[in-house]
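Researcher: Let's continue the batch. This sequence belongs to Transporter, and it's 970 residues. Same format as the previous ones, please.
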Amino acid sequence: MSTLLYSLGRWSYRHPWRVLVSWLLLLVIAGGAFALFGKGTSNSFSIPGTEAQAGLEQLNRSFPQASGTSAQFIVVAPDGSSVEDDAFKTGIEQTITDIEGLDGVLAVTDPYNEMVTGLISDDETAALVRLQFDGEATDVPESTKTKLHEMTDELGASLPEGTEVVLGGDLFALSVPGITLTEGVGLLIALFVLIVTFRSIRMAGLPLASAVIGVALSLSLIMLSTAFATISSTTPLLALMLGLAVGIDYALFIMARHQDQVRAGEDPEESAARATGTAGSAVVFAGITVLIALIGLGFANIPFLTVMGIAAAVSVAIAVLVAITLTPAFLGLVKGRVVGWKRREPRGRRRAAQQRALQQGADVADGRPSHVGADAASAAPAGPQAQEAHAATGATARRGFATRWVGLVTRHPVVTTVAVVLGLGIIAIPAASLALALPNAGMLPKDDPARVSYDLVAEHFGPGFNGPLVLTGTIVTSTDPLGLMQDLGDEISTLPGVETVALAVPNETADTGIVQVIPTTAPDDPATADLVRELRGLHDHFLDEYGIDLKVTGFTAVAIDISDRLGEALVPFGVFVVGLSLILLAIVFRSIWVPITAAAGYLLSVVAAFGVVAAVFEWGWGADLLHVTKVGPIISFMPIVAMGVLFGLAMDYQVFLVSRMREDYVHARRALDGHSSRQPRDIALGAVRSGFTASARVVTAAAVIMFAVFAAFVPEGDSSLKPIALGLSVGIAIDAFIVRMTLVPAVMALLGDKAWWLPKWLDRLLPHFDIEGEAVERERALADWPEPETTAAIVASDLSLVERDVVVFEGVSLRVEPGGALVVAGADEIATRAMLLTIAGRIDSTGGRLRVAGHLLPGRSAWVRAHVGVALLAEADDPVAELRRAVRGRTGIVVIDGVDRITDPVTRDRLASVLWDASLEASVTVVVSTGDAANALPLLAAAGHPDAPFIELVAPNATAPAHSTTEVNA
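Model: Same format as before. Here are the structure tokens for Transporter:
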């Protein structure tokens, strides 16, 4: 991965305009396609497999008048007047007649109808008119909505002065969130942080530019997908928040590494490639964790939430791709102008830094290396003492606070750990009262007409009138459908929590009955959810008593089912993301304790963030300051979305912070190599401090930027998005500054060198992910091996392979020029085949050096696998066809195993012919494995390689367990 990104970064640096124009062209195409085919977002929610959804589908088939979305308008008479007066009655009934003729309106309930009760308040000061539409809210024509507003406005104007006529209901309950100027404040804060971090206005603008391009493209693609998928209106804003935050941060990580390297004197092109290969590898890994967590939102099995997760994942994926391509391209545009202005330190601090640097050099000379980051060391002048002194000077001068902070928390690790855990535990206390609900009109701004209608209905009729429940079932076997429904309604009206039964009637064909229940509590009140569960608990009783299979449905019941499903999904989703973090971090850090501390820290961050959200939105602390329109339950999918997003971002900080600690620890252990009396625990502590100091500046800037971007959506954000934005902003601040930059160093100091312990069996089982760019550093160090611009097709030095403590081969040194041939002979078939597969990039060697077609292995094994043909003749049904497949295409090297098994002279001749034909088209280098070199030489001679040399892999025995060879040049 790191070597691939290294090459990609170099190519992007050299061809900046191609990269930039390509991204802009994609943006134009996606934006144009959205403008032509996009259909807009939807605010409808459904949840297949639940009783409420099944009930809606049944109503849609047999009772369409009650299955679609609904609306209502309330008429409130001025003081001293009654809605029973003729002026009110005439005006309202005329308006009802006009509304019934609108497109999409199925039915309008007249409060003055003798068959209707409960729609005129007890004090006769208010009348409620209900409207039923065909289909969901998105199916209602905009013209109908406009006409409804006009008609109710005209009604209000025609009634006595002081009368309130307000339109509301489910049709107008959800607002379409938009972008306000407040969100721009987040970008301004991000720009300021970038300027301070880079000390360059030019550099500060590049991460913002790349993030904006990535977000614009992702939003265009998301909106384009509305042409064939249902996208909730919250989805684009969530993608916008995430895309901006991670887009800026990912570019920041790469550019900060590049700037440090250029300041140290490295060539800008080489630095851009190296930064993309090292920091870019961490960016890819961090992006993958976010992607998996977002896609994991499908655990809840709720379609709109799954789509939301996929859309947000698309935004993050594009941010990663933009970061590893457009970022080095921007660096190619600015070339070496990335250093920024130099900040002068006070004279006293400079003198102290110089003295510490000299002492640091003395320590190195005595075999006591300072544990500075690899990049800091490589940025120094020549010589180990000068490097360490330079790094120490930079660390002290530029990162003084970070050095003092990590020194403080690691000197008192027990106190720090206990304080952080207790403090976050206290902050998390309000999370125990967290209640979930889908958004309704009661969460809209107080001056919104739908919110005004909601409040007036609750005031004059009771809160339950804003969220009636619908019970429906088949009554085709009943001989008295009217009496049956009347008896059923009478019994339900006696249940606790039921205000009244507004309707209990069969449909026109008398095969389906419907009961409309008005609860005593509001739609988002937990007591309403309890009533729904009680009604469902009486299912068997109603079936036995009345012979009707009742289902509880309606908008309120659907919302309750979604909230319950999301609540149930939190634990398995939490297990999924925590388990995932354990596995991924174990792969990256080759450690058991680092993943455990990371996962525990993530859980602390999540529950603390939930505690703050609950304190604001349910306890009302600071609600007015944050413009919370209504204190109460929060949107149902906030916890699971916040858990998914925070998981990915927490892993970002863990990776960028702890990877530098591991890098310093590994380099320090290698530098000592047994020549120092320092204890491993002291080395580990030094690595924690130096790694923290080296990465704290960038991690701090990244966290502040993310906090600013998320927090900007809180004050004026959409009511659905506001709790998510608050949870993410608080979670980011807690996770970055309290958990990752305080708790983690303290715990790492407590663990010492045990932090990097991993059982050998698990180390063999886990795949390797080069997140620290070690392959890039190795490739740079061996750039001139075996000689600059080498012409060798294959060259190896002291190559070895050890599997499960068993030496397969070792000490292999060879060189094969283009068009040459080599025979690998040996009695051990496993060893000879392993040797060929190592050359072909299918197996990674465990020691030595190997370069194939100019590419250093194992870092470039992906390229080698694609360009080196492999023919395993022993297992092939048709050996000739197998060899043809191996040599076709752009193959310049082919390895052939199993020549011994081909005894038929005709087949051997055909194999030689295939090799001969391939060599006529292009120069083909051939490597053959065999038990006896004599078996392969005739084949190679017939193919044009009569003098092919061979190497002999010695079979293992009790006294010489290793396979060894002497150096062979071909």
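Researcher: Any comment?
Model: The chain is about 55% helix and 10% strand.
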